[in-house]
Amino acid sequence: MRRPLSKCGMEPGGGDASLTLHGLQNRSHGKIKLRKRKSTLYFNTQEKSARRRGDLLGENIYLLLFTIALRILNCFLVQTSFVPDEYWQSLEVSHHMVFNYGYLTWEWTERLRSYTYPLIFASIYKILHLLGKDSVQLLIWIPRLAQALLSAVADVRLYSLMKQLENQEVARWVFFCQLCSWFTWYCCTRTLTNTMETVLTIIALFYYPLEGSKSMNSVKYSSLVALAFIIRPTAVILWTPLLFRHFCQEPRKLDLILHHFLPVGFVTLSLSLMIDRIFFGQNWGTFYGSHPWHWYFSQGFPVILGTHLPFFIHGCYLAPKRYRILLVTVLWTLLVYSMLSHKEFRFIYPVLPFCMVFCGYSLTHLKTWKKPALSFLFLSNLFLALYTGLVHQRGTLDVMSHIQKVCYNNPNKSSASIFIMMPCHSTPYYSHVHCPLPMRFLQCPPDLTGKSHYLDEADVFYLNPLNWLHREFHDDASLPTHLITFSILEEEISAFLISSNYKRTAVFFHTHLPEGRIGSHIYVYERKLKGKFNMKMKF
Predict the structure, then answer these.
(1) d(CA 481, CA 502)
(2) Pairing between β-strand 502-509 and β-strand 521-527 as defined by DSSP bridges
(3) How many whole angstroms separate alpha carbon 358 and alpha carbon 484?
């Protein structure tokens, strides 16, 4: 028969057990050294916390350095122009702010633009000026390198987010899709408000309260969103569904508004959007061209996705439900922008990183066809990126290098003058010359008085270029030393060129796809006269 056990589980009268228990009780009064457990979970949690504390550099310093190096290479492999705003709404304004000469378009004279974005580059210009290093090449490239650096940070942040939400494999393929995207390569180093909006959107998404995210921070993400609103008010379109979701899921809604949204100026920024868009009560977008309502769905969105499109569609079917908010945001943005008459590819650029999430998810689940798919994506996007970055629409930048030489090789700058006879804002301006050379271009401000059948200067010129030139330059004293035109115009104004003694002195390739007023080449004409020039150019 077994004897009953005591409360301690020891047999009564068990001497050795009693001594052992007595010894343990005595030791409990002293310090007991515990063996440190090498728990994988413990170290992983500690490591992740340390990485998060590193903020922008917390993910992986080598990954960040690789991405920065790639974006710098990206910067130097984009030597073409995209849209006028990358100069006229950023660098030209910054140049005017620091050096007190340059051209401000009607949006700035009517105070419809925010100086927040140009101020970034104006600060760079001012530092270069104070250091005596404000050469024209540095003024052109340093802002673009700064934009490349910010884009690299955003790329790494996208990788970090997907690593938190999924795993390293999914994050790797999303990162690959982001770096491979030809349109991202084409845009991410350009000094466009759309580019900065995209950077801020990615970094804000990193702090947004998505399910599974460990880096959510309402103050940080709402501050970044507010900054995106200031730089480009239409950022509110993309963020509306995300903000609405956060508000609906937040149990302490009043606290969210009073302690997070309002302090970072959400209401102020919303008012700023309304003022910028509705102030004059006119639809200025149609002035710059209009497209059918379906353009973003039939052309715009498929073009910027390029060969990523089938992987995006495939990923939409495979991705978990928690990513539906990203898909809803993409569709919402396309629908709202479709209601606006004026449409451009760059307007929907900020939704591209959202699409890369689905593309990466598609690649993760490919088994047999993964290697061919990766090769296809890489090679197809490489061709598009190199062609659009090095070939298509490069003439308008190359001709500015020629104008630089006209200025710096001429000891008397006032004796030379430039007239750019191209669709308005086709080329950069003083930000790419950095010389107070007398220059003029065909202007195209919208009508602010509400006149019907309004024609701007460029429109009037292209109705009859030859007559316009004879009326505008009625005597030799008013003629500029240099004329710059697209090749398509040469035949039409040849009589004026001959009678005024202009000779073609330079030719620059521009595009393989000329259309409308844009020719395949850019021609530079110089007026050849015996003796000195008499230059009193009209402005």
Answers:
(1) 9
(2) antiparallel
(3) 46
Distance in angstroms (rounded) separating the CA atoms of residues 181 and 380: 10
Task: Tell me the two tokens of residue 473.
Answer: 């330059």
Backbone φ and ψ for 263, nearest 5 degrees, come out as -60, -25
Q: How far, in Å, CA of 266 to CA of 272, rounded?
A: 10
- Cα 429 to the center of its chain, rounded Å: 21
pLDDT in tens, 227-267: 898 888 889 899 989 998 988 888 887 777 666 766 655 54
Amino acid identity of residue 122, one-letter, is: A
- Our CA angle for 188, 356, 214, nearest 5°, is 100
Mean pLDDT of the chain: 84
Looking at residue 257, the DSSP 8-state letter turns out to be I
Single-letter residue type at 421: M
Cβ–Cβ under 8 Å, residues 487 and 518: no
> Tens of pLDDT along 46-105?
444 444 444 444 667 889 999 999 999 999 999 999 999 999 999 999 999 999 999 999
CA–CA separation, 190 and 143 (whole Å): 9
Q: How far apart are CA 522 and CA 398, in angstroms?
A: 9
How far is residue 291 from each of residues 69, 193, 343, measured CA to CA in Å? 38, 22, 6
Find how far residue 364's CA is from the centre of its chain.
Answer: 27
The residues with which 521 forms a beta bridge, in sequence order, are 509
3-state secondary structure of 292: coil
What is the C-alpha separation between 205 and 220, in angstroms, rounded? 10
Strand order in the sheet with 482-486: 439-441, 418-421, 482-486, 521-527, 502-509
Contact 154/316 with Cβ under 8 angstroms?
Answer: no
For 432, the enclosing helix (H) or strand (E) is none
Return the pLDDT at 18: 45
Interstrand relation of 482-486 and 521-527 (parallel, antiparallel or unpaired)? antiparallel
**Residues near 134 by Cβ (< 8 Å), separated by ≥ 6?**
99, 125, 128, 434
Closest Cα partner for 107 from 141, 81, 140, 84?
84
Backbone angles phi, psi at 153, to 5 degrees: -60, -40
Taking the C-alpha atoms of residue 535 and residue 269, their distance in angstroms, rounded to an integer, is: 48
- Specify whether the CB–CB gap between 361 and 326 falls below 8 A: no
- What angle (nearest 5°) sits at the alpha carbon of residue 83, between those of residues 82 and 87? 105
Cα separation, 435 vs 399, whole angstroms:
15
> By three-state DSSP, how is residue 283 classified?
coil
Structure-token pair, residue 419: 């007239």
Residue 26's identity, in one-letter code, is N
Contact partners, residue 344, CB within 8 Å, separation at least 6:
83, 300
* pLDDT tens sequence across 164-187: 999 999 999 999 999 999 999 999
